[in-house]
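User: Here's a chain of 121 residues. Predict its fold as tokens.
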Amino acid sequence: MKSNESTENYLETILILSKNLPVVRSVDIANELGFKKPSVSIAMKNLREKGYITVMEQGYIFLTDSGREIAEMIYERHEFLTDWLTGMGVDAEIAAQDACRMEHVISKESFDAIKKHCTRR
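Assistant: Prediction complete.
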């Protein structure tokens, strides 16, 4: 399950949008991320080729099982790290920004150790 930060951000965004919208389209992703639609279209083509999403004839975008697995892992890290940082007194906006960077580089081992340490308190 090798992916890069851009791939992970797109997949996480699709997951989040799918929780709030009946269907997700490229324009929704572009609006959410502040990207131009052609850039998002290229990214969606790449995600589709990697097997992370399916795109229906109507343009509706759905995560595949492998895409959902990555998206949920990144989303969990983002939420947990944001809460962890804010719990230590970091401003919420800064915590969310830092969590967004950290979620892509932290190893599974380190993340699991932090989570275990924080939940046993």
